[in-house]
Amino acid sequence: MAMKLTMYQLEEAAYIFEKANGYSHSAYEKKIISESQLKDINVAELEHIIVDGLNSRLYKIENERISAYWSLLKTGNHLLLVDNFVKWLEYELKYENKNTIFQILVALDAFGEPVFHKDRFGRDARDFELNIRDAKHYLSSFH
To answer: Which of 47, 66, 118, 125 is found 20 to 30 A from 73 (Cα to Cα)?
Structure first.
């Protein structure tokens, strides 16, 4: 059965993923990592817990999913995660969850995926129409 992390645990996981990738943290972030009960979980297992939670639809609230997507972005594991992010983008687009769509676009972009239109200069979560347009265009290449 999938395990659901809290919003705070998703933040902890993001910092743990960053640490595993050699990112230098602030004192605040180091304190969160040192106090985290998640720090003793293997990074791949922690990633798996979040992916399973998203795939099992445990994260019902949009802000929870945004945090989960943001946390997974910090893994840097684009080979495994791109397929999942594409699937999640289709789901979020189906329900027009504008903020989660943007977070997924940002994650896919960070993984080197061409999600934002080449003529687009800025990226903003409030550019709902542009984000939806770009998401639909990106997904059209898979169908």
So the answer is: 118
What is the C-alpha to C-alpha distance for residues 120 and 134, in angstroms, rounded to an integer? Answer: 10
Neighbours of 142 (CB within 10 A): 10
Contact in structure between 33 and 12 (CB atoms under 8 Å)? yes
Q: Give the global pTM.
A: 0.93
For 84-128, give the DSSP string. Answer: HHHHHHHHHHHTT-HHHHHHHHHHHHHTT---S-TT-----TT-H
- Length of the chain counted residue by residue: 143
∠ CA 98-69-105, nearest 5°, is: 50
